[in-house]
Amino acid sequence: MSRVDFDQGLKMGLGWNLRNMNLIGIWPEPSRTDERCSNFKTLFYLTVIIFFGPVPQSMNLFFIWDDLELVTENLSIANIPGINAVIKLFIAWRHRETFKPIMKSFYDDWRRPKTEEERAMMSDRAKSAQFISVWCSVLTLAMVTVYLSLRAFSIYQSDRLNERQDRLILYPGYVPYNVRPVPVLLLTNLGQVVAAYSAVICYTTVDTFIAMLVMHLCGQFQILRKKVQRLMGDKRGSRSADEIRKELTWIVKRHEHLNWFATKIEDCFSVLLLIQILLCTVVICFQGFLFFNSKEIGNSAYESNWFDVSPPEAKYILFIMHRSNRPLSLTAGKFSIFSMEMFSTVRATSQFNITRFIIFQKIIQ
After folding, report:
1. How far is CA 127 from CA 68, 84, 239, 340, in A?
2. pLDDT value at residue 364
3. For 7, 207, 237, 246, which has the most beta carbons within 10 A of its beta carbon?
């Protein structure tokens, strides 16, 4: 494989992961031994995200705990995503040295000689990884930009002297000082802007890095499958016993190496994925509470003493009961409500599709 093909294939396989992870200091470059600059960048971003994100947001929970809607907003918009970003950044930083052998294997797979068919398989997986890394980064950065722009305009339009202090910053939270003076307000919000973009990069990049490794691993298993299928021979004829033993030895070693690759990913990120699921579950639970409480307004209206008043006054309560038929909820793309019913439907559909795919594979084989 030429140097040009290697560089192009590797660049495609890495996508934006190399750039983003170098920016926050967690890229596991195998040839790098001095990590002081990377450590400084990671500690800087950790500090900014923590002190302008989860800390003021979490402290603010003590003041808004009796308002379920504000609590849900606090947890879902920035608090839990910020905590998630901090955990992802810390775990990726902690396992950076562990991933250096994995990245060396990643580079070696692109360097070693390969057939046109094998290069095409790797390129297909690399294109998928590149698409994921680029578009996940673009979409999340765009969403944060839109949110910050709308919040900045809302703050600009508000009455700075009479508005609640926690509503004067981009991500509402508690700060132990007066933010109403313009210079203080600008500096505080600037810190939150830096924290927001830093958290987005951390949140997205670690996920796309995992996707990159998994896609690369899938490509290597696909190549290995072709090797196994052609072990006894191909269209050109059968192989000798020595050739079969030699090829089989290589296949076994390669299989063990790929299993080691997958085990390293599992060991490094299994705890992270568990934490991510638990944190997302907390948000969905609060969204469910919001849905339930808003729906109960109709029952409360029915349980009022409407029968003790005249019919014209009693009719007024029908408006409340009618409106509660459309309870408050958070949706996925405005078409599906976050609820246990949605979760059960998605799980059942996924299991059905996986079963159908396995049956289809067995048929065509």
Report:
1. 44, 27, 34, 35
2. 46
3. 207
What share of residues in the chain are helix, strand, coil (percent, to 5)? 80, 0, 20
CB atoms closer than 10 angstroms to residue 262: 15
SS3 sequence, 88-109? Answer: HHHHHHHCHHHHHHHHHHHHHH
Q: Spell out a b/e string for 82-105, using b for 16 or more CB atoms within 10 Å of the CB, else e.
A: bbbbbbbbebbbebbeebbebbeb
Q: Is-contact 34 259, C-beta < 8 A?
A: no
* 337 three-class SS: strand
3 state DSSP class of 240: coil
Buried b (16+ CB within 10 A) or exposed e, 127-148: ebbbebbeebbeebeeebeeeb
Q: Please state, in angstroms and rounded to a whole number, the distance separating the CA atoms of residues 175 and 156.
A: 19
Q: Which two tokens stand for residue 158?
A: 């508000």
CA 277 to chain CA centroid, Å, is 10
- Residue 327, SS3 per DSSP: coil
pLDDT average per 10 residues of sequence, the chain (365 residues):
59 84 91 89 93 89 81 82 90 90 90 85 87 89 91 84 82 86 89 92 90 89 84 67 81 88 85 79 66 60 64 64 56 53 54 52 49
pLDDT per position as a tens digit, 254-263: 889 888 988 8
Contact 17, 205 (CB under 8 A): yes
Residue 294 in tokens:
């808003």
Q: How far is CA 363 from CA 353, 355, 357, 358, 359, in A?
A: 15, 12, 10, 9, 6
Q: In angstroms, what CA-CA distances link 294 with 287, 288, 301, 322, 350?
A: 11, 10, 12, 12, 30
How far, rounded to the nearest angstrom, does the alpha carbon of residue 143 sit from its chain's CA centroid? 14
Per-residue confidence (pLDDT) for residue 4, from 0 to 100: 46
At residue 340, the 3 state secondary structure works out as: helix
How many CA atoms are closer than 13 Å to the CA of 121, on its beta-carbon side?
18
What pLDDT is recorded for position 198? 92
